[in-house]
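Summary for the steering committee. One of the milestones for this cycle was to obtain a three-dimensional model of the protein with zinc ion bound, which we needed before selecting residues for the alanine scan. The sequence and ligand used are listed below.
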Amino acid sequence: MSDVPPPWLPEDIDETFDPLEHADIEPSPETPLIVTPRGGDREVGRSCYQVDTQHGRYLVDCGLSQGTSDKFPDLRGLQPQSIDAVFLTHAHVDHCGGLPVLENRNLLADNAPVVTTPPTASIASLMLEDSLKIHRRETDGSSAVQQFTSRDVAEVCDRFHTVGYGGGRIEGVAPVSDVEPAIFQLGNTAHLLGSAWVVIQTSGYRVCFSGDLGGRATHLPDMSPPPESGLLMLESTYGDTHSHPSLSGARTGLWEDIERAIQTREPVLIPTFAIGRAQTILLIIAERLHTLSADLRDRVEIVLDGMAVEGTDIYHEYVEDTNYFAESLVNRVVESGETEPFFAESFTIPETDQDRQKILTRAARDGTVPVIISPSGMLTGGNSPRYLAEFTARFGNASVFLTGYQAANTTGRTLQSQYQADQETVSATIDATPFSTDWPESSDVQWVHAENTGDSELKTRISFSADWISLVEGLSGHAAQSGLLSFARTVAPDTIGLIHGPDYAQERLGPHLAENVAGVDQVTRSRRMTPIAVGSETDVDTAVISPEEIDSTGYTELEDQIDHLYELLSKLNEEVASARNEPGLSEAEIREVIQDEMEIKE
Ligand SMILES: [Zn+2]
C-alpha cells in the first residue's frame, strides 16, 4: 500500500496500525457499536466500513477504486480470520471489488458469510470475474503486485449467503457466539437491481449504512424506509446537486436523439457501464422501438455487446419478482408473457470480432444504422473504445452518447472536456485493437507510440468532429440532495457520517443536513481509519460540524418539499404513461400542477 496517509493520521503509520487502538476506544456497554471507514470516506470508490460490537467484527462493503491502477481499502491492523461477516449493499465494483483481497489476505473467519440479496450475489460474481481480468492486465508485466487470484474470486463467491430484503440475527448467519445480540436488516435503495441499505443493531443502538441511494429508476420498486438509527453513514455522491434534470426528460431526449440518428443514417455508439445504466438504456429503446415507422425499423440494428449481455440476463432472471422489480413492469411481463422486457423486439449480440466487423460493414454498404450499447461507459476498456476507433475510420458522421459520469484520466473525460471547450475536432490516444488485422485506411486513426513513456508500446490516436458527441444528463442512478435529505429525515439520527462523496459535495451537503434534519446533533465528514462510536459516548475525534456553526445554504424547506413532490409525481406520471403507452406530462406541466396545488407564484 503506497498510499500517503491522510493528514489526520500519524505520518509513521505502518502495517500494524490499528485504528481502534490509536483512537483508544473499544466496544463496551457505553459504546456498543463502533464504525471505522477503511475506504470510501471522502472519495467515491473502495467503500469499506468496519463495524465492531462487543462480540463480533463485521464489514459493510469492500470495494475497489478503478483508475490508473486499482486501489483497495486500507486493511492495516486487521488480524487473520478476524472478520465474522461482510454485508454487501450492492454489486457495483466500488462496493464489492475488494472482496477477493479479504480472501487473499486470509482476513475472513472460517465460515464468515458475505450477506446480501440474491440479485446482488449474481451480479457481484459477474463483476468480480471481470475485475480479475482487469486486475491481471494491470499487474501483468508491471511492478504492481497482483492482489488477488481467480482462486480468491471463486472462494469469496462461495461465501455468498443470500437473504431477501428483511433481516435476522447475525449469529444465525455468522460464526459468532450466541451471546452476540446483534441484528441485521436490509432494505431496498432503488439504485441497482438488488441494492440495499444495511442496518446493524445491538444493545438498543443502531447504525444505518445508506449504501448508494437511488429512487430514480422506473423499473425498480420504491425505496423501503429504513428504521430510525443513532448513526447514519450517508452516501453523498451528488450532495451538492439540489435535484437532477428530470428523468423523463432524459429518457425522451435520448430516444429523440437516437431516432434522429436513424433518420439521418448515423451509426450510434452508447458507451455504458454494463450493469444498471445499460439496462436503463435498453428499456428506453425496447419500450419505444415500436413507435418508429416500418421503414426506420427495418433500417436500425440494435447491438448489445460484452458484459452488458450477461448483466441483462441476470435482470431477466428476477423480472417476475416484485421484491426486485417495479410492480408495473412485473405486471406487464406476466400479462404479456414477454419475459425479456429489456431486449428490443430484435437485436444483435456479436460474439466475435468478425461479427462486429460485419455490423459495421452492413452500415457502410447497406445503410443500416447500428445502435451499439457497449461497455465500458468511460471508454477505458471493453469494446466501446474499439467501436469508437472503427467509427472514426469508417464513417463521416456518427453519434456518440456519453450517458454517465466520466471520471478524471479516462478517454470519456478527455473527449467530454474538449467538447465542452467548444473544440471543433476532438481527439484522444486510446488503448484499442482493430476488429480486423489493422484499422481501415484513414487519417483519423493512427498508430502512435505511447506519450511520455518512451516505450515501444503502440497506442491508437483518434480524432473526429465534436458534433458526434452528446452528453446525456439526468439518467443518474443516484439520489440528489433532496433525496438524501429525505432519507436522513426518515433515519432521524443523532449523528450523520458523510461517506462516498467528493469534497465539494460533502461540504455542501453537511451544512444542509445539519440545518434541515430535525434532532441531528452532529454531521461529520467521515475520516479514513478514524472510528465513530455509537452509544452514550459519541465524543470521538471526527470532523464535526454542529448546526449552530453553519450558515444558511439558501435552500428553504419548502423548496425541498416541492422537489421531493416533483420527483414522486414524475415517477408516477412515467408509470402511468408507460402503462398506457402515452407520452405523459412534460416537466413543465408537472411543475405547474404542483404550483397550482400549492398556490405558489414564481
Ligand atoms: Zn452504486
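Key point for the committee: The chain has a mean pLDDT of 89.
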